[in-house]
């Protein structure tokens, strides 16, 4: 059994409750963030909490805790789950109960859910994964809102064809991001990633700040027409880390196997996170 933090108390996961009148339930109005641990240390905790605060500001949600308080609650909740080898951590702040069922009144609650980390199938990384594209875009992409209607719909379409992720393409044919990931491409030795109208992914940030210096880098719009002609594609996210993509819709990317550039980034990211978990790097 896992221990969660809910509105001031640490409780067994089976006893974690929220009011059905909360507009996170009625309207999908709330925010969240997600991270994993390395060596039981929450990876880039301060960055995740800072993004959490930015998400609240973006949608007009009042937080009832400071960033420092949230960080301490996350650490304490992890400590209360010593049976995990590694953990997945989800921070959620609800919109609260509203008199008219719509208008936030600043009485939302904070929840921290810590569960055992689940590893994606090894073959995704050995052979590469398939993704699809969907003509859709998120509302307020800079915020991690709990309103995941577009993501859930897109993921359902992906699962129907055996794909592991769906990537949004907007009305201007720009390739944006996955439902829970950012996208990178290689054209030759140049690493390319979108920079506008996307969520500022923490794993993406690590790739850009700690790894991308090994490659030529272009941060720009990617037109859908370019995508199938890329030599390599990979996704980045907290739970998937660096995931090679070998098929988009019905088209094979590159050789149909994880490419050399992607493999190098996978190894560099693995080396970095392991060193980070040991406290050897910032």
Automatic annotation (TrEMBL):
This is branched-chain-amino-acid transaminase. Pfam families: Aminotran_4. It catalyses: L-leucine + 2-oxoglutarate = 4-methyl-2-oxopentanoate + L-glutamate; L-valine + 2-oxoglutarate = 3-methyl-2-oxobutanoate + L-glutamate; L-isoleucine + 2-oxoglutarate = (S)-3-methyl-2-oxopentanoate + L-glutamate. Belongs to the class-IV pyridoxal-phosphate-dependent aminotransferase family. Transmembrane segments: none annotated. One of its GO terms (biological process) is carboxylic acid biosynthetic process. Its EC number is 2.6.1.42. Pathway: Amino-acid biosynthesis; L-valine biosynthesis; L-valine from pyruvate: step 4/4; Amino-acid biosynthesis; L-leucine biosynthesis; L-leucine from 3-methyl-2-oxobutanoate: step 4/4; Amino-acid biosynthesis; L-isoleucine biosynthesis; L-isoleucine from 2-oxobutanoate: step 4/4. Keywords: Aminotransferase, Pyridoxal phosphate, Transferase. Its cofactor is pyridoxal 5'-phosphate. It is an enzyme of class 2 (transferase). It comes from Desulfamplus magnetovallimortis. GO terms for molecular function: L-isoleucine-2-oxoglutarate transaminase activity; L-leucine-2-oxoglutarate transaminase activity; L-valine-2-oxoglutarate transaminase activity.
């Amino acid at each position: 059994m896992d221990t969660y933090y809910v509105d001031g108390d640490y409780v067994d996961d089976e006893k974690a409750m929220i009011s059905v009148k909360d507009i996170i339930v009625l309207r999908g109005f709330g925010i969240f963030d997600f991270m994993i641990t390395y060596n039981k240390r929450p990876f880039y905790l301060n960055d995740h909490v800072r993004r959490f605060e930015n998400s609240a500001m973006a949608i007009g949600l009042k937080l009832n805790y400071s960033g420092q308080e949230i960080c301490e609650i996350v650490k304490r909740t992890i400590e209360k789950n010593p049976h995990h080898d590694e953990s997945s951590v989800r921070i959620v702040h609800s919109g609260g109960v509203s008199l008219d069922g719509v208008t936030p009144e600043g009485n939302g609650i904070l929840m921290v859910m810590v569960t055992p980390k689940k590893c994606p199938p090894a073959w995704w990384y050995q052979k590469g994964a398939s993704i699809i594209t969907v003509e859709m875009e998120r509302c307020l992409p800079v915020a991690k809102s709990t309103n995941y209607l577009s993501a859930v719909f897109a993921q359902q379409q992906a699962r129907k064809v055996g794909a592991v992720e769906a990537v949004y393409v907007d009305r201007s044919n720009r390739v944006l991001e996955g439902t829970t990931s950012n996208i990178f491409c290689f054209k030759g030795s140049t690493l390319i990633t979108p920079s506008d109208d996307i969520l500022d992914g923490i794993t993406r940030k690590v790739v850009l700040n700690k790894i991308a210096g090994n490659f030529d880098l272009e941060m720009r719009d990617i037109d859908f027409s370019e995508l199938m002609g890329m030599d390599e594609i990979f996704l980045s996210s907290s739970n998937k880390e660096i995931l090679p993509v070998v098929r988009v819709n019905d088209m094979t990317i590159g050789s149909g196997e994880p490419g050399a550039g992607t493999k190098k980034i996978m190894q560099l990211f693995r080396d970095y996170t392991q060193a980070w978990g040991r406290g050897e790097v910032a």
